[in-house]
Amino acid sequence: MKSALVLGGGGFIGSHMVKKLKMEGFWIRAADVKSPEFGATAADDFIVADLRDPAQCRAAFDRPFDEIYQFAADMGGAGYIFTGEHDADVMHNSATINLNALTACVASGNRRIFYASSACIYPQSNQLDPNAPIMRESTAYPANPDSEYGWEKLFSERLYLAYSRNYGIEARIARYHNIFGPEGIWNGGKEKAPAALCRKVAEARDGGSIEIWGDGEQTRSFLYIDECLEGTQRLMRSDFQGPVNIGSDEMVSLNTLAAMIIAISGKTLRVDHISGPLGVRGRNSDNVLVREKLGWAPSQPLRTGIEKNYHWIVDQVALSASK
Question: What's the structural domain count of the chain?
Fold first, then answer.
């Protein structure tokens, strides 16, 4: 039986990966500071561990694993990342986790590890035009990410590559572009745009309004969780190291995304634009390299995933209201 270790296995992407690996017949250990929020873990062994602590992180690596996935990070949406209030914690916590994970890999004799980086590593200057952002993997340098979160992700990419050169670690690095879906954070300040807008529409009364930060013409692409897992596993099981974009190249403005969700809801709602943290003006996944190296591309349009996410959040809003 193959085995896998999923760091951050209590989080959104990590808990979904645990379920997918379990369906494939893996024995799975997951480690995270918290258990999954929306149901019991599918892991055979779930360790509640603070991966910032070297001893607790090392304890998760006490056996050989065929695959190791590193999703653990201090992160959130624009309301968490771009205010500047959490910069020190974001950088310290995430960098410490990655240092500990790689040290434990070397000490335990494990070699193959996937690292979840982010599109936030790309230079701000490449993302000024909302209609034509430049997001090819080769454009990451000269470096100038738009947030300390992005700087930490870029540092950690280089950390994994250095461990690959010096210690024989078989690193696989993906730059994720706005992953969303059921069982993701949908309230509390760390949620990302798809979940936030789905929640606002779900909570709004027909004939009312929702709010969007800025003018709503900032653009993004969003990738449904199932697509993300497929791309991630293709990278993990390939001979290509990366870094490589894993995202959708179906770019939309936030106004368009809001209109899509409102149409799915069947409600009539007004959109009010207010001030708030925005991030870059435009961002979209460039999928030329991932198609060439992995033969991967998203298999469904954005609306299909948004429909699933909206109906899941409707249920969460109703459940929350009933408590």
Answer: 1
